[in-house]
Amino acid sequence: MIDLQFDKALVFFAHPDDAEFMAGGSIIQWVNEGKEIILCVVTNGAAGSNDPAMSREKLIASRMEEQREAAKVTGVSDVIFLGYEDCMVEDSHDLRRDMIREIRRHKPDIVIGPDPTMYFFAGQYINHPDHRKVGEALCAAVSPGAATLPIYREELYDKGFEPHHLTAALFGLTGSPNYWVDIEAVMEAKIKSVSVHHTQTPEFGDQFSERMHQIATFTAEGSDYKYAEAYRVMNFRER
Ligand SMILES: [Zn+2]
User: CA 182, CA 178: separation in Å to the nearest integer?
Assistant: First the structure.
């Protein structure tokens, strides 16, 4: 398996709760190993309720609060909210520029985000378009964006955001994994980190726990682990 060495990671996902669902075990494991993890949430989560009585402002505020609570469970050191509209994410120059800015500001060794090539999962689930678009914009922000001075120069380099080289990019929620993180020891903590997103899944009983274990078992296929989260890794140091 790929030898992934890093001290600091910047994690990009579309919605509040995505990071915990897709990478929560990895984040907890990495924090336990002494690594620093920062989370950047692209959208405001405003489409996360079908309750007609739920106001937009209340939902956005609740989801930000839930995300901050989840970050305390996983040990994420900082949460950045970019505030894009939920369900309307495009691979835009605004989003690419915002991602590059955060990469240059925080100077992580690696970034993590969703695999933009995933449309369908196992005949059961069509990937959320926001996940794909965040993944697409992240690819552009990683290469050539973060390390290339002239890109959005007036808004970035001229304002003090100097080019930054990443050592790797990890794409989760993938059908083509080449790297797995063993999350067996942190499964309960992962489930807890998801469970604080009360607006998303009100019932976090045994059935939910069982489902989370099933997903982690399925994701571990191809590895030696019992429960895992999986990634498609671009390892730039091996070029
Ligand atoms: Zn999502």
Answer: 13
